[in-house]
Each structure stands twice: as structure tokens, then as C-alpha cells.
Amino acid sequence: MKNILITGGAGFIGSHLVRLFVQKYPNYHIYNLDLLTYAGNLENIKDIEQAENYTFLNGDIADKKYIQNIFKTYKFDAVIHLAAESHVDRSITNPIEFVMTNVIGTVNLLQTANQNWKDNKTAKLFYHVSTDEVYGSLKETGKFTETTAYDPHSPYSASKASSDHFVRAYHDTYGMPVVISNCSNNYGPNQFPEKLIPLFINNIQQEKNLPVYGNGKNVRDWLYVEDHAAAIDLIFHQGKIGETYNIGGNNELTNIELIHTLCKLLDKKLGRKEGSSKKLITYVKDRSGHDLRYAIDIKKIHKELGWQPTLNFKEGLEKTVDWYLNNKEWLKNVTSGAYQDYYKKQYKQR
Ligand code: NAD
Ligand code: TYD
């Protein structure tokens, strides 16, 4: 029996990971720690909340006493750390919150884990889930590898870069068993509709404008969320201590290419005339410090652990769109109240 702490398990990627671990590993007990911020939603994991090997813990990763308490009580053997503030636009308006959660919260977890694990002889692991955005922005060619120098540009990526450095520092200074993965843009069910794909699915349904930042030529490398969860599973069990693994979709698209594909698909699914969603596209003021291009070289994880994406983008996007169309209640719940204020503020000046 292993006690595993997963942080951020009520969020987008965390909920897929928690489900995978609870169902695939009945001999693990999964403790899901989440503060339930605007991005955390217990609805995301409703189907497994009664499982015998699952416990939800509601708390803040930056709360020292609370984290010490749960480590004492539950004696975790491993941590998979996903809890974070994750949206670049929000980091531009509220960078301090990103430092508190992504930096202080991560160091608090590291410090507590290190204190609790020091004299323990059984195998332990601190797995830190991070992003490719720490590497900065690519020009038209080349890809990020595990040795690309860090060059973050947004408060979000700067806070994630900082947390990655702390994880490595705990390994190098205190000998803590750690592993890090840096993944490209995820998409799929349960993603909060502030990120590009779910936001645009929601807006198209409601026939609202589709705000494209700048010229729409920025490139992202998209990966279906369940493929990311499968990669985390593999790295958790077979990754080498102290190593970093890059995870990507081998699937680069400009924003405008992606948006055109999405518009076409939704015209079909919603029974609208072809070309009607495209008319909603509105070019707006660019994001400050907007990275031009992200692309991940997945050679290392493919060669060492045999991982590669299983879903092509067409299949993944169709699954995602179908999920949002079949879960209108979920979308309605998360877009009421505070979301309306966020949307007005975020897009007012654009
Ligand atoms: P998300 O915003 O959907 O979920 C984050 C979760 O963390 C939420 O459930 C939230 O309630 C929780 N949380 C926030 N602050 C907390 C705190 N102080 N204490 C405890 N819980 C807190 O994010 P996501 O997209 O699922 O991303 C998860 C992780 O993966 C993040 O670390 C992110 O940097 C990383 N990542 C995301 C992507 C992506 O495309 N979404 C890509 C690569 C890496
Ligand atoms: P996003 O989903 O916020 O992910 P990230 O910034 O972490 O890559 O944005 C993906 C791309 O889409 C990015 O280049 C910014 C762009 N974008 C828009 O053009 N309009 C929008 O309203 C949003 C949210 C994003």
C-alpha cells in the first residue's frame, strides 16, 4: 500500500490524473489536496469520490501548519504536485498570487516532505509537474529539449521556472528524490473556459466574439490531457530520480489554424451554416510578452520510457467538443458569478 498525495486534483489535468491513479492502482491510496480556487471543481472527479482508495483534502499548499499536519497524519510515500495558478492572462494582472501558490506553495511542500522523509528508509518521490513555458519562446524553427536554457517571459512562466529550480535545489542540496516533467499545451474535457479551446467552444455556442490576440500566428504544441496523464504515470513509475522529461503533442498549430478547425467542427456539430462561426473571429490587442512559438522535442521520453501521444488532434478535438456539448450544465456552472466579472475585465480593454 502506498499513500500518494496529488495536489491540484480538482483542476483540469489533476482530475484526469487522480481518476487514472484511483482506478488503475487499487493498492495505492490517493489523497487529493486542492484549495478549490475558481479553477478547482469537485464535479470534475464526482465519479470517483466514493472510491475506497480516495480521500479529498481541502487546503492550501502554501499553508505551513496545514501541510505539516497532513504529512504527519497520512505519511505520504510520494507527492505528485500539480496545484498551481495556471493562466498566463491572470498572472499579468495578479502576479503576486502566482508567487504565493507556485513558488511559496511548492517550497512549502518540498520543505515539509524533506523534513518528513529524511530518516525514512522506504522509497519516496517528489514529482513536480511543470510547463514548457519555462523555456521561453522559439522562433520559426527548433524545439525545446530538456537542456534548453530557461528563459521565462510571463509572471506565470517565471513562477513555474522558479518552482522547478527549487525542486532541483532540494535534490542537489538535500538529496531529495525528485523528478520533473515539462509539458506543452493541454486540451480536453474539464478545462476551465479561460484557456483558448474551451473559451472559444463556449463563445461559439453563445455566438459571442472570438478574441484572437495579435495576428493569430502564435504557435502552440497541443496534447490531449489523457496522454499527459499517461506520461505522468509512466514517469512516476519508471522515470529516473533527478531527471527532467519533456512531454509534447508533436502537434504544432498556429492559433488561427486551430480556431478555423474549431469553427468548422462546431458549425457541423451545431447544425449551423458552414462559415458562420468564423464570422465571430475578432482580432484584439496582443497579450503583453506573448511568446511566439512553443514546440517540444519528445525524443527523451520516447526513447527512455516508450511514451508517445496516442490521439491525433482531429480525434482529440472532436472528443473535447463533444464533451463540452454534452456537459452544458458543467459549463453553465463554472461560467456564472465570478467568471462574468473576470471576462468583462479581461476583454474590456482589448
Ligand atoms: P488548473 O488551473 O485547471 O488547476 C489547478 C488546480 O490547483 C485547481 O484545482 C486549483 O483549485 C488548485 N490550486 C490552486 N491554488 C492552490 C493552492 N494554493 N493550494 C491547493 N490547490 C490549489 O491547472 P491545470 O491546467 O490542470 O494545470 C495543472 C498543472 O500542470 C499546473 O502546475 C500547470 O502549471 C501544469 N501544466 C499545465 C498545462 C496546461 O496546458 N494546462 C501544460 C503544462 C503544465
Ligand atoms: P492559452 O490557452 O491561454 O495558453 P498559453 O498562453 O498558456 O499557451 O492560450 C493559447 C494561445 O491562444 C496563446 O497564444 C494565446 C492565445 N489566446 C487568444 O488568442 N485569445 C484568447 O482569448 C486566449 C485565452 C488565448
Write a structural description.
The protein has 350 residues and is α/β, with parallel strands linked by helices. The chain has a domain at 2-187 and 221-247: NAD(P)-binding Rossmann-like Domain (Rossmann fold). The protein contains 12 helices and 13 strands. The protein has helices at 12-24, 64-74, 88-93, 95-117, 155-174, 196-205, 225-238, 255-269, 299-305, 313-326, 328-334, 338-348; strands at 2-7, 28-34, 54-58, 78-81, 125-131, 178-183, 186-187, 210-213, 219-221, 223-224, 244-247, 252-254, 281-284. The strands form 4 sheets. The chain has a 7-stranded parallel β-sheet with strand order 3-2-1-4-5-6-11, with helices on both faces. Strands 7-10 form a two-stranded parallel sheet. Strands 8-13 form a two-stranded parallel ribbon. α1 (12-24) packs across α7 (225-238) and α4 (95-117) packs parallel to α5. The longest helix is centred in the N-terminal third of the chain and has 23 residues, at 95-117. The protein starts with a strand and ends with a helix. The model has no long low-confidence stretch (mean pLDDT 97).
Keywords for this entry:
two-stranded parallel sheet, about 45% helix, 12 helices, about 350 residues, alpha/beta, 7-stranded parallel β-sheet, binds thymidine-5'-diphosphate, binds nicotinamide-adenine-dinucleotide, Rossmann fold
In short:
By secondary structure, this protein is α/β, with parallel strands linked by helices.
User: What is the 3D shape?
Assistant: globular
Poorly predicted runs are none
The CATH topology of the domain at 2-187 and 221-247 is given as Rossmann fold
Question: Can you tell me the CATH superfamily of the domain at 2-187 and 221-247?
Answer: NAD(P)-binding Rossmann-like Domain
Bound molecules: nicotinamide-adenine-dinucleotide, thymidine-5'-diphosphate
Largest sheet: 7 strands, parallel
Order of helices and strands: EHEEHEHHEHEEHEEEHEEHEHHHH
- Give the end-to-end Cα distance, rounded to a whole number of Å: 52 Å
Helix content: 40-55%
What's the β-strand tally?
13
Strand order, main sheet: write it out. Answer: 3-2-1-4-5-6-11
Indicate the CATH architecture of the domain at 2-187 and 221-247: 3-Layer(aba) Sandwich
